[in-house]
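2024-03-11 09:14:02 INFO worker-7 job=invfold-0412 stage=load source=structure_tokens
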């Protein structure tokens, strides 16, 4: 059977990062490919691509699809990706979706699209309840991982702060932008004959949710026909 490329979608605060890790440990041991991580790595390395990315960001422009596609294609060609991958943060546009479809086809990989769905009011409550230490960077959750002393970091005693991107109005704007950006991509995959599996990301513990995603991957393998289409 062909290796799986899990294309994992999830809004900010949906637990997508946690699920990428758990699914990788449980049923898809290939690399977790994050375009955001790749772009930051090039910036930190100070190489030619990093300089190009920084120049675009300073001028307020988005990193073009062509550059992102090139980075992803190069990563997919590496030996550790041949047994399957988890794509996180990519594709972000319909043009990128069409390109990754081509890449995966050339590599003989089976794309499986999973959309991690969480009620937005729950996400707002979750993210707006986060606090961070401005000294050591430790994150706390007022509901699930509160500091021992309210408002004070356990490690260094600094006063905790609310990050700007964890303020409710900012969170709701990010969620709105996610909807505007993501829905056309999911529609594209559906029209292209790739089933988009929706998984509830908030009605169970993370381990149980990862089991559901793994079940969707197993089901995709079992349904694949001889022509290689899902």
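2024-03-11 09:14:09 INFO worker-7 stage=emit residues=230
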């Amino acid at each position: 059977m062909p290796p799986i490329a899990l294309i994992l979608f999830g809004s900010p605060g949906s637990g997508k990062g946690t699920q990428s890790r758990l699914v990788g440990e449980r049923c898809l041991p290939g690399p977790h490919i994050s375009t955001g991580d790749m772009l930051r790595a090039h910036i930190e390395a100070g190489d030619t691509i990093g300089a190009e990315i920084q120049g675009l960001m300073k001028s307020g422009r988005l990193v073009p699809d062509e550059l992102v596609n090139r980075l992803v294609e190069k990563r997919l060609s590496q030996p550790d990706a041949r047994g399957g991958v988890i794509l996180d943060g990519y594709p972000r546009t319909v043009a990128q979706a069409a390109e990754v479809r081509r890449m995966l086809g050339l590599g003989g990989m089976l794309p499986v699209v999973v959309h991690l769905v969480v009620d937005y009011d729950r996400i707002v409550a979750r993210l707006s309840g986060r606090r961070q230490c401005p000294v050591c960077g430790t994150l706390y959750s007022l509901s699930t991982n509160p500091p021992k002393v309210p408002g004070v970091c356990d490690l260094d005693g600094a006063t905790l702060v609310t990050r700007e991107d964890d303020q409710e109005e900012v969170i709701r704007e990010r969620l709105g932008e996610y909807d505007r950006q993501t829905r056309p991509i999911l529609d594209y995959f559906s029209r292209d004959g790739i089933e988009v599996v929706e998984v509830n990301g908030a009605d169970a513990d993370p381990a149980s949710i990862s089991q559901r995603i793994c079940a969707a991957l197993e089901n995709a393998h079992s349904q694949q026909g001889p022509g290689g289409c899902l």
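2024-03-11 09:14:09 INFO worker-7 stage=report msg="The two ends are 12 Å apart (CA to CA)."
2024-03-11 09:14:10 INFO worker-7 job finished
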